[in-house]
Write a structure and sequence with these properties.
Elements lengths: L3 E6 L5 H13 L4 E6 L12 E5 L4 H11 L4 E5 L3 E3 L3 H11 L3 E5 L2 E2 L6 H10 L2 H4 L13 E3 L6 E5 H6 L11 H11 L3 E4 L5 E3 L4 H23 L9
Parallel strand pairs: 1-2, 1-4, 2-3, 6-10, 7-11
Antiparallel strand pairs: 4-9, 5-11, 6-9, 8-10
Helix pairs in contact: 7-8
């Protein structure tokens, strides 16, 4: 799809990154793919429609750098340890073009069935009500379509112009940059839409990494949500 740039932030080039890039290139040969690596990471370009950028720091800086380089109407974010379904972009664009009140479209990030046993255990935990609470719908393609207050940035699609209007992602945040962006989008009068038809397959972390992520991300995202609700200025221009 010529009108979409796929932005992939990554620390380094690894097997998951290669799978993400090659899958995107195969499914969407006309789309611009922008891979944003750390400054000193070695690169192994795998596609003629791949652009490699260098940007150190937090992941929001990588995403903002990718958006600045994009030349398309729409941008799609996916994590480097994920890969998309063949209808990922077409289903998202159908919604964005039909309903102009929708600012962000996203969908489930499903655990690939080929994961090892350690990651499968994390997958089971992340789908439970005890761990994920009301947000467990992110992990299932059987969830119902709905308007929501947050979508993870491993799977969101939106207009580049609107992203820039929102001043991009907050480069001062180490976690919760997606929670912050969605909250500001809603505060500006746009809606965030989840649909089970916009699917990416996202590898789960191994148990130690998952526990560290929960300890850091949970409190951080809650504080961001409260700050935005109380109209504190917690973002910087792109």
């Amino acid at each position: 799809m010529k009108e979409v740039s796929i932005i992939v932030p990554s620390i380094e080039w690894e097997p998951f990154t290669e799978q993400c890039i090659t899958t995107c290139a195969s499914l969407f040969p006309e789309s611009e793919i922008i891979l944003v690596l750390d400054d000193d990471a070695p690169e192994k370009p795998a596609s003629k429609n791949l652009t490699v950028l260098r940007q150190g720091g937090v992941i929001s800086k990588k995403r903002n750098a990718g958006v600045k380089a994009a030349k398309t109407e729409f941008i799609a974010f996916i994590d480097s340890d994920a890969f998309p379904h063949k209808d990922w972009l077409s289903n998202a664009l159908d919604i964005l073009r039909t309903d102009k009140s929708v600012g962000i479209v996203g969908g489930p990030n499903i655990s690939p069935p080929s994961q090892d046993k350690d990651r499968k255990r994390v997958s089971m935990a992340s789908q439970s009500w005890l761990v994920a609470g009301k947000w467990r719908f992110y992990k299932s393609a059987k969830s119902s379509a709905c308007y929501c207050d947050n979508l993870p940035s491993c799977n969101i699609i939106l207009r580049k112009s609107l992203y820039e209007q929102m001043s991009g992602m907050n480069e001062e945040l180490e976690v919760g940059e997606d929670t912050d962006l969605c909250a500001r989008m809603i505060a500006s009068g746009y809606r965030v839409y989840f649909t089970p038809k916009v699917i990416v397959y996202h590898y789960d972390r191994k148990i130690p990494g998952y526990l560290r992520q929960r300890m850091v991300r949970g409190p951080g995202c809650f504080c961001i949500f409260l700050a935005v609700r109380h109209k504190r200025k917690i973002f910087t221009p792109i």
